[in-house]
Every structure is written in structure tokens, then in C-alpha cells.
Design goal:
Immunoglobulin-like; five-stranded mixed beta sheet; Ig-like domain-containing protein; signal
Amino acid sequence: MKKINKKEYFLLLIFFGLLMFTAAQSQTLNITLTWSANTYVPPGYQGRTLPVRGSVVEVAATVESSGTKPELLSYQWIVNGLVQETGSGIGKQAFNLKIPDKTSRDYLVKVEVGDKNGNFLGVSSYMTIPIVNPEIVLTVGASPVSAESYSVLPEQETDFIAQPYFFNINRITDLSYKWNLGEQEAFLIDSITPNVLSLKVNQRTETASQTLFVSAENKSNPFQTAQTKAEIIFIPNQ
């Protein structure tokens, strides 16, 4: 039997090492997690749509693999330490996360990737999803109204718009609005645009001010509410 000299042995080690490296390379996985919320934002809004209590968040894993098709891998989704059995399984790269109405914390989402038999491949990724409250922003046209004050001229009609953000709705009319100017409630005539209050002040001889208050509530979910206010200054005739 021929003995293997040191040089041949060294070459064999290099050869098997290359085989193992190639096999490892063929199983390289890179995972990127993303999420998107289904909450409402006004047309033209360029920021990110954020989730609130009672909304649904779609979470997805984008997998870059040099040797295995992502749809043949097994995905185990874990939310705040709890395995999501119904959302996990072979090819389940995405799942919908329903945010409870009474939660008070952000959500930590993790995914662990395994082979088609469910054996963990040592690859995982995680991210934090922030949970916010719905908001209302008062504007006149496209300009936000300062919470400190807004001046109104006599005999001039001003449209105050309460723009809703991050409610779990499809349209403006899915919200019920309540407007108050000072101690008096303002009754809206146009039910199509309940988030718009038209204000016209008669001629005045002196400066005065009152607080404009508006609140909104999701008709389908009373846990989703928001409110804001602004000080309105009535300018006298010049």
C-alpha cells in the first residue's frame, strides 16, 4: 500500500477544505425584513405610514440565497418571544400581524430560517415595529396651523382642515368629527368633508381670541381617537 507523503496529505487537506467552503457558500443566506402598515394618510404624504392599535402590519422576509430557492425554505416567525404557528411554515416569507387594541408597547419581530424539513439553518433576522397613536394636524390649505395662534381677518372665510394620520380607515367619512370654537360646538353642514370647518367672522372693533378644538374617532373602533387645538385670533377692522 502506497504511503501518502506530507506534500500529498497537505494537498488533500486543501482540496477537502475547498469542497467544504464551496458547500458552505452554496448555502449562504441573507435575510432582509420589511414591514408596511395599512393605516390612512392624506394624499401627497411622503413619509412612512405607521401602525396603530387595531391596525394590520404586513411583515415580509426577502431572502437572497446562492444555493436554495427561498420558497422551499421554512420560516418560523416570532413576535415578542411568541412563535406565530399559523404564520410559520414552508414558503411563508410574509405574514399579517394584527396589533391589539389595548397594547402599549412596540413589537419585536424575528424570523428563523430552516430547510424544508424544518431544521434550523442558523440564519435569523429581527426588527422592531413602532406602534404610534393616530394624529390630527390642523391646516389652512396646505399650511399647518400653529398650536399657539392663527389670525383670522374680518369678512374673510377661512377653511380649517383637520388632516387625519394613521387611523385604521379607508376614507375621511369613516371618522366622526367634533368641532368646538370656545364653548360652542360647531355644526357641520357638509357631511362629505366633515374634517373641514369654514369660519367667517363679522367686522370687529377690537382683537379677540378663542380656542378652536377638534377631535376625531374611528366609527368602527372607538379606541382610535385623536384631538388637537389652536388659538384663533380675530383681527379688528383696520
